[in-house]
Description:
Elements: H1 5-21, E1 25-31, E2 39-40, E3 44-52, E4 67-84, E5 87-102, E6 106-110, E7 114-115, E8 118-119, E9 123-128, H2 143-147, E10 154-155, E11 163-169, E12 173-175, E13 180-188, E14 193-198, E15 203-204, E16 207-212, E17 220-224, E18 227-241, E19 245-250, E20 254-266, E21 270-282, E22 287-292, E23 302-314, E24 319-321, E25 326-336, H3 346-349, E26 354-357, E27 362-367, E28 372-384, E29 388-392, E30 395-401, E31 406-412, E32 415-420, H4 458-484, H5 488-494, H6 496-512, H7 516-534, H8 544-553, H9 558-576, H10 585-611
Parallel strand pairs: 2-9, 10-21, 12-22, 23-30, 24-32
Antiparallel strand pairs: 1-3, 3-5, 4-5, 6-9, 7-8, 11-13, 13-18, 14-20, 15-19, 16-18, 17-18, 19-22, 20-21, 23-25, 25-28, 26-28, 27-28, 29-32, 30-31
Helix pairs in contact: 5-7, 6-7, 6-10, 7-9, 7-10, 8-9, 9-10
Amino acid sequence: MKLNLKHIFLLMMLLISGATSYASSVRLTVDTGRGRRAIGVGDLFYIYYEVSDLDAVPEKPASVPGAKVMYFDRTGQSSRFTSVNGKTSQSFSYTYTLTLRAQKEGQFSFGPVTVGGVKSNTVSYSIGSAADPAPAPGANPSVQDRHNSADGPKFIGKGDGNLFLKAEVSRTNAYEQEALVYTVKLYTTYDAIKFIGATAAPKFEGFVIEESKDISTSLNYETYQGKTYATAIIARYIIFPQMEGDLKVIGNKYTISVDEREYYHDPFWGSMSVAKPLELNVTPNDLTVNVKPLPKPVPANFSGGVGQFKISSELPSQNFKSNQAASIVYTVTGTGNLKYVKLPDLNALYPSQLEVYSPTPDVNANVGRTNVSGTAKFDYSFMPLEAGTFSIPSVQLVYFDPQTGRYETSEAKGYTINVGKGTGSERSQTKGKLAFNNQLLPVSGNLSVKHTPYVERFVYWLFYLIPVLVLLAAVAYYRAYLKANADFLAVKSRNASKMARMRLKKAAACMKKQQIDEFYDEMLAALWGYLGDKLKMPTSELNRQNVSETLSGRNIPEKEITELITLIDDCEFAKYAPAATKADMQPVYDKGVTVINDLESAFKNKNVANEN
């Protein structure tokens, strides 16, 4: 077959296009994020690496002009096969996403980067000032509006088909003081969960709570209503209802960062997808628990314990001396409201010849998956006042078992003790019999007829005057104290640095024990707690934008604000990052101490300036 000029030209174009399509390349593009036209300070934006026909992985950049590096990961890949004149070739490409947070206004450029010896292009981007989104017509500006804006996390209420939270309680009908388990479970169809953080704790109305650390560290898969979700338990609390009636548990708000996969059709490559970071705000459902009172009549010696308990006693010796202190230990073990168990009054049970002193209970409780369990030790000191043989009676612990619905009794054994005569005088056993000595004592000195009544002396009235003056001073001090502490928020604001130092002390203890997750929990609690107390802001309004605006409104230097927000980002990122990539805790701790000290100094300088 003869080839004309047209066929030869077409064949050459196919060969050239095949050769060029397989040429290795690295291309950078900028995405302002979620459809925004411009990048503002504090916004997340993205730089995509498109690496084609290169068997090499780009390195995560140490820094990017005007922005902070948050994440860097491979988010997509594609490949194709081409056959020309019977020869098959393969081309492939990978997409890497660099997630950044804008920190500084100005015009910036990034690149070129080198991957496997191939240089990329250079991209430019502009960062403007942070600005609040304009509210919808007729709407009132609020924190909720900011959450719904394009520049902040998207608020999706109770969730949607791609992500939602489900709150559950182990029993919706329970007795007072019965241990219940409250859990918050995450359901999602997104590709990856990068961050989960609660902006506030759930509101437990009428409950005492114990937070459990028994939560999911990885995602599991579960079919719910015919659809497969990745699931994880993200919060677990053991709660104890304190009153009868319908008690409510109001779910808190969580911020969750995910990868949203977008699909599109390319005329050359075919169907493709790319993962983009997305921040969502979501709340779990609210719950109501019907709480029943404990059955009547309540036993007179009821210990207050609700659960399953046992009591035992331990007496090291049964031979004692009078007027010498000894001790007996009662140990309560079991599950339930262990911290609220009380023993009977031993002074009413023990013989009058034994004087008993009330102890401080030593409670070692463990918050587990379904209950609070452990031991409570009551180390009673007692002193025999007389020699003889005495019986220490058995001690009963009466508690309510919600599983049986009845009051149960556990008993610690009693003892017979022998008391010998010790040093010092024993207590008289002849109460009420007084010996009388009728021998008159001699009078020393001269008797005088002149006598001034004691009531007419100044010293007598001084005993009345001094208490009155002390009382007046105490009343004046108390009134001044009430006036100074009338504003509860102002008191918390004054004590903000003190509370922050206490939380930092806990973080230092976790750092010494290499408890990484607990360390970052305490660091975040110290930072957010300090801001909430100092700025008199409720936890529901604590977010980066509100804090930055409030601090700027109080003339706090921009440097301190930026360092604070940066430290919070570092802690949140390190807390949910893989263990192998977590930064050293000491620099984070040192920076936390410095940031709080600098903010406190800035507040004090501002107050001094206002006074002058």
